[in-house]
Design brief:
The chain has helices at 3-9, 11-30, 35-52, 72-90, 92-97, 105-121, 126-144, 151-182, 187-197, 201-217, 227-233, 236-242, 245-261, 266-287, 294-315, 318-343, 362-365, 367-381, 389-401, 405-431, 444-457, 465-477; strands at 61-63, 68-70. Helix content is 74%, strand content 1%. The chain has 22 helices and two strands. The chain is mostly helical and 480 residues long. It is found in: Cell membrane; Endomembrane system; Membrane.
């Protein structure tokens, strides 16, 4: 591959990184008064990066000597990441303007984090994996604690940093073991070493540590402990970002490592994935029942949904990988829509409201907002005819076709348990006595994004199944 083609393969990352540096200079020169303009410029950069995914360079294959892979799988994951990141930027100015805490660095940090996520999903080497993951994480630590005068935000950033450092250490130890016992850090080399020499004890330990480090990034049990506290303490736009784009990047990275690097050891890593999947489904469903803060509830919801997505990966087939990407696509629409509704929860003084009790009687005071939030809750629960039912059906179908019918049944039972706390929110909005009124909002951007998200997860979403299925299957086959 020539140098120009190699460089063209990483155009999305070049657009975002160069744009982030330029916008950082603008932020330093103009200060926070330029934050809104910088935010829209960042959104434009995400649009440009998305457009650059179209065409031959974005599917050029192996680049930078095997360190980077530009294929259909990476392109699909990056598109989801860029959409989620752009929405996270668009919803921030309205929320931060009410507290006067909007900083010009916010969109720049999301740009840098998205750059790291792009490197993660295109990684063809354990070192590229680590560099991308750390770039994403370092920006995320700052975002979690960006409201410096808010004790909860500072606490969230500190917890995220300490536990993230622990996870990075576990991941690095796994990488060192894999390198020591295979003699390479490239996914193709590890794949060949396992296929030729078998799964030695050292490689097995390295595999376990690598998957443990990645499990932290997707909030899978037993490495979920940071999620509720960080989701609750971080500013709501930041929480919406954490719940969407990094989840897609980490899940796509785990899929790539499992299939490309550890393909011959599928029977070994499948046991880890199945345990983590079922544990995440159970804990996410049970622990959410007693929550009184809606952001903590959605934190456990994200753990629960990660468990369902992992069922598709446990299948270990192209159909299973395609179902994982389908799940993450619909999950983004449901999660961002839910957080957009939460952002509109403010008391008459403009202070954010996060308690579930504050939603009491919302259907009478804010019927449109209540209807939208009810749609997102029903869809997260996987209740037909809303589109959230389809990705659960896809992962269960992939597991069944791979011979894991019992895993699909266990996931379906967990889905029934998890539906309780989603329905509890709907019951609170429609049947409880009205709570003090929430302030109305006339932010057209927030309203438009809520409408688009609701439309995506409505029964009309089923019309997109042919296109979505073809795209995800093409992306999945790029790994096999």
């Amino acid at each position: 591959m020539t140098g120009s083609v190699t460089l063209a393969a990483s155009v999305p990352e070049l657009i975002l990184s160069i744009g982030a540096m330029l916008l950082l200079l603008v932020a330093g020169w103009r200060g926070d008064e330029a934050s809104r303009g910088i935010s829209w410029a960042a959104v434009a950069l995400f649009v440009a990066a998305s457009v650059s995914l179209i065409g031959a360079p974005s599917h050029a294959g192996i680049a930078y000597g095997g360190l980077y892979r530009a294929d259909a799988f990476a392109g699909f994951a990056k598109l989801l990441i860029y959409i989620a990141s752009a929405v996270s930027i668009m919803l921030a100015p309205g929320w931060f303007s009410r507290t006067g805490a909007m900083r010009a660095e916010y969109p720049v940090l999301i740009l840098l984090s998205a750059t790291g996520m792009g490197i993660m999903v295109s990684a063809g080497d354990l070192l590229t994996l680590y560099v991308g993951l750390e770039l994403q994480s370092l920006a995320a630590y700052v975002l979690a604690s960006c409201m410096r005068r808010d004790l909860r935000s500072a606490e969230a950033g500190l917890k995220y940093f300490v536990l993230g450092a622990l996870a990075s250490g576990i991941l690095l130890y796994g990488i060192s073991l894999l390198y020591g016992f295979t003699g390479t850090t490239q996914f193709s080399g590890i794949h060949a070493a396992i296929a030729d020499r078998g799964l030695s004890t050292g490689i097995l330990f390295g595999l376990v540590f690598v998957f443990a480090g990645l499990a932290f990034k997707i909030s899978a049990v037993p490495f979920h402990m940071w999620t509720p506290d960080v989701y609750e303490g971080a500013p709501t736009p930041v929480t919406a970002f954490f719940a969407s784009a990094p989840k897609v990047a980490a899940m796509a990275l785990m899929v790539r490592v499992a299939v490309e690097a550890m393909g011959p050891a599928t029977d070994a890593w499948r046991q880890i994935i199945i345990f983590s999947s079922l544990a995440s489904i159970v804990l996410g469903a049970v622990a959410a029942i007693g929550q009184t803060n809606i952001k903590r509830l959605l934190a456990y919801s994200s753990i629960n949904n990660v468990g369902f997505a992992l069922i598709g990966l446990a299948a270990g087939t192209p159909e299973g990988v395609a179902s994982v990407m389908t799940y993450m696509t619909v999950y983004i629409a449901m999660t961002l829509g839910s957080f957009l509704c939460i952002i509109r929860m403010r008391d008459l003084d403009g202070a954010p409201v996060e308690s579930i009790a504050a939603l009491s009687g919302l259907s009478r005071s804010r019927p449109g907002l209540a209807a939208a939030l009810a749609m997102f809750m029903f869809s997260l629960a996987g209740i037909p005819p809303l589109f959230g039912f389809y990705p659960k059906l896809a992962v269960f179908g992939a597991a069944t076709n791979a011979g894991y019918f019992w895993l699909a049944v266990a996931g379906a039972v967990g889905s029934v348990v998890g539906a309780y706390y989603y329905l509890k929110i709907v019951k609170t909005m429609y049947f409880d006595e009205p709570a003090p009124l929430l302030a109305s909002s006339d932010d057209k951007i927030e309203g438009g994004l809520i409408a688009l998200s609701a439309l995506a997860i409505s029964p009309l979403g089923y019309l997109a199944i042919p296109v979505l299925s073809a795209a995800t299957l093409t992306a999945a086959k790029a790994l096999f």
